[in-house]
Amino acid sequence: MPEWTFLTNHALVLSYLAKHPSITAREISLDIGITERAIRKIIADLDENGYISKRKVGRGTRYRINPELSMRTDFYDDIAIGDFLAALGWKRRRRRSQTDRSSGNTTTSTTG
Fold it and tell me: What share of the chain is helix, strand, coil (3-state, %, to 5)?
């Protein structure tokens, strides 16, 4: 790991969850180079503050990003977290609503 990076561990974990919604804390830990316990703490922080939501899928967890929240800094509070993640290569997934599924129409509601 380099001496310093441009992104905090919170930003790295959030970007991993955005790009890989079913990734495990262990997998992130191995890639980032911090402990699995630290990853779980960061995920809890992100969940508690509304940046992500979690859903159990079988034995795993699927993460969804809330792209509308702003960055957690006064200097960049006008930037949505979704725009920040898009700059890092995140592609927002499109989700169809229940009524549109039955009619075959798609919507443009955005999810992570």
Answer: 40, 20, 40
Rounded to whole angstroms, how far apart are CA atoms 93 and 112?
A: 6
Domains of the chain: 9-111 (1.10.10.10)
Residue type, 100: D
Q: Which of 73, 70, 63, 107 is nearest to 85 (CA)?
A: 70
Exposure on the CB side of residue 80, measured as CA atoms within 13 A: 9
Give CA–CA dist 99/112, Å, rounded: 20
Q: What is the pTM of this model?
A: 0.77
Question: Is the separation of the CB atoms in 14 and 46 below 8 Å?
Answer: yes
Question: Which tens digit of pLDDT belongs to each residue from 11-35?
Answer: 999 999 999 999 999 999 999 999 9
